[in-house]
């Protein structure tokens, strides 16, 4: 889970100094890492490492990130 969480902002930062096409690629990698994190979060819940309440709290933040990232990527595609 730690690797996914670090990968999300790291890929945004890495792609930020590149052209639009490459930046979109790095944003998509970041988005993919968020889906990986969401999957691992659900596995943690199933293994009772986290409470249902904490899982929902974190998952809501992940979903919010995914919506923002998807919207941002869509806007870059229009340019």
TrEMBL record:
Coiled coil feature spans: none
SUPFAM superfamilies xref list: IVS-encoded protein-like
Gene3D superfamilies: 23S rRNA-intervening sequence
NCBIfam families referenced in this protein's UniProt entry, alphabetically: four helix bundle protein
Protein name as annotated: S23 ribosomal protein
């Amino acid at each position: 889970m730690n690797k996914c969480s670090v990968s999300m902002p790291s890929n945004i930062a890495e792609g930020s100094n590149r052209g639009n096409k490459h930046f979109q690629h790095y944003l998509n990698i970041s988005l993919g890492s968020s889906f990986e994190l969401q999957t691992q979060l659900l596995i943690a819940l199933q293994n009772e490492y986290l409470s249902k309440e904490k899982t929902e709290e974190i998952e809501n933040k992940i979903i919010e990130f995914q919506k923002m990232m998807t919207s941002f990527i869509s806007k870059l595609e229009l340019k």
